[in-house]
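Much of our argument rests on the idea that a fold can be written as discrete symbols. This step matters because it turns folding into a mapping between discrete strings. The record that follows shows the chain in one-letter code together with its fold in token form.
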Amino acid sequence: MKRREDSERIVITGIGLAAPNGSNLEEYRRALLSKRSGVVPYEIRYFGKTFAGVCHCDVLKYQSRRDARRGTRAGGLSIYCVGEAIADSGVDWERFPKDCVGVYIGVTEHGNVETENEIYEIKQYDYDCSYWSHHHNPRTVANNPAGEVTLRFGITGPHYCLGAACAAGNAGLIQGVQQLRLGEVDLALAGGVSESIRTFGIFAAFNAQNALARHEDAAKASRPFDKARNGIVVAEGGCVCTLERLSDAKKRGAKIYGEIVGYGMNSDASDFVLPNAERQAQCMRKALRSAELSPEEIDIVNTHATATVAGDALEIEALRSVFGDSKKTYVNNTKSFIGHAMGAAGVLELAGNLPSFDDGVVHPTINVDELDPECEIDNLVLNEPKEVGNVRTILNNSFGMVGINAVTIVAKYEE
């Protein structure tokens, strides 16, 4: 593993999250180990009945009801996650210079929810645009979720959102690492967020692609790798990590969840929707080179697999090409519990695996009644948690539409 000076080593010192089956890391991890799904029956206007991963966090914990009405669902989730991440980190927030804090939030899309809602509202006025909300522009600008965070917490350092489709959560983390190493900030609040279930358009579009999950039981609808899988369960969620240089974290005696030791990003340049296994494999190898690790030194691979027929098989093909000779690399999937949280997916799924550094357990992929032969790979953890002993490294995959790929590698912190 690449050894750097403490001032270049970037560690995770706080985690704030909102998942469909947990509103903090402890609750979330407990759900993953007890096989508790967060997918429920869901109905949305125009589209009708479906399934979704719905969050139950208190978005008013860190903002007023008035600000929540003026703002956005994505902004509300971001504020909740950032508030939790700051509190969890133990940083002296009142004394910390706010111009040295950066906010980097990955998003799949933003503004669809607000635009749909506002069109729905003016319908009652026969689409008279004089009734259009004056909040529309600040609600829908691309930097909104990160910007709402800075307004709430008085952060005067840089903020922006990273539009990286379903690779956005990992992209947010990567941006935070880079900005810390460049010396642009001293504390990075980095991750991803998604309010996707609030827009009927995303359900209608996946349904038109024949890529929306169907099942008689909501909890079993998200079933990556299963032979009978039939599509995506859309989920909302968010996860933000407090990132610091190791030298700073050690000075204040911070607890450390893990060290981000490597990452990679690339593009498929081949199709709007269909993934490219060769490019995915290249992205994983790029991350391994960044960390100076061999495939055999990775203990857990958390897959992106969304439960589409082609997507799951292509990712396993990529994994076989990279990890085919590794006998100690375990493979799992988190979307089987929560659905696909889009821009939040990568970092939210990574967070659910970080406790493995402490408990030595790999959470399973659930809902696999019959494994698709095209998704077979050694050490795929199915349906039950697996105790594996010492876990030192986790590789997290995130791949998005229009061919964007992002991979992060986190290691157990060791002096």
Observations:
- Residues 73-89 form the longest helix (17 residues).
- The chain has a mean pLDDT of 97.
- DSSP finds 14 helices and 14 strands in the chain.
- The two ends are 13 Å apart (CA to CA).
